[in-house]
Amino acid sequence: EKGLKDYYDGYFPIGVAVAPRSLEGQSKELILEQFNSMTPENVMKMGEIHPEQNRYYWEAADKIAEFAREHDMKMRGHALVWHQQTGDWIFKAEDGGQVSKEELLQRMKTHIDSVVSRYKGTIYAWDVVNEAISDNPEEFLRNSPWYEIAGEDFLVKAFEYAHEADPEAKLFYNDYNAVIPEKRERIYKLLKLLKDKGAPIDGVGIQAHWSIFDPSEKDLREAIDKYSSLGLDVQITELDVSLYPWEKERRELREGESDEFTPEMEQRQIESYDMFFKVFRDYKDVLTGVTFWNVSDNYSWLDHYPVEGRKNYPLLFDENYEPKKAYWKVVEFD
Ligand code: XIL
Question: Does the chain have fewer CB atoms within 10 Å around its N or its C terminus?
Answer without folding.
Answer: C
